[in-house]
Amino acid sequence: QKKELCLLENPFTAVCVSKKELHKSGDVVVPRSKLSPEEAARYSQDQNEEDVFYDSEDEDDEDDPETNQDVLTPRCNPCPVVKPTFLCGTDNRTYSSLCRLDYHNCIHHTNVKVFCKGFCPCKEGDVHLRKKQKQEAERMTNLMNKYKATVIEESKLKDNNLINNVD
């Protein structure tokens, strides 16, 4: 349809999204011809490693049933075909749905989380918010470490006083 833009998901599959939705979400699709030579080279390397939207399963492994069993474990449920809601993961890869991100985590035994809504990379506002959250988490970690060190030190002093009083 004229109002939709189809993006390649892998060499065999395309995902079509409405131009209105892309525009409304502020996402920009950059044609490969507009990429700088460095970005184009990096994109080509990424394509060999894994698909931008979905996990790629090595086609060479299809002949080996043992390897195939490792990839599709009974615990990893495949995702239904639904309208994509693009999400950028903390691994800086775009996923077409939360289910696909969870599926990726299950297959690869990783813990990728949603970094922001939309295509990767995340916009500066999202990155700024995440940076603030990370700094707050680091402050809390430092505070807890200081607290634990104080409690341990007090416990040692208390134990030393008890030992000295017994002597």
From TrEMBL:
Signal peptide: none annotated. GO terms for molecular function: calcium ion binding; collagen binding; extracellular matrix binding. One of its GO terms (cellular component) is extracellular space. Transmembrane segments: none annotated. Residues 70-121 form the Kazal-like domain. Residues 47-67 have a biased composition (Acidic residues). Keywords: Disulfide bond, Glycoprotein, Signal. Pfam families: Kazal_2 (PF07648). This is Putative testican-1. It comes from Rhodnius prolixus.
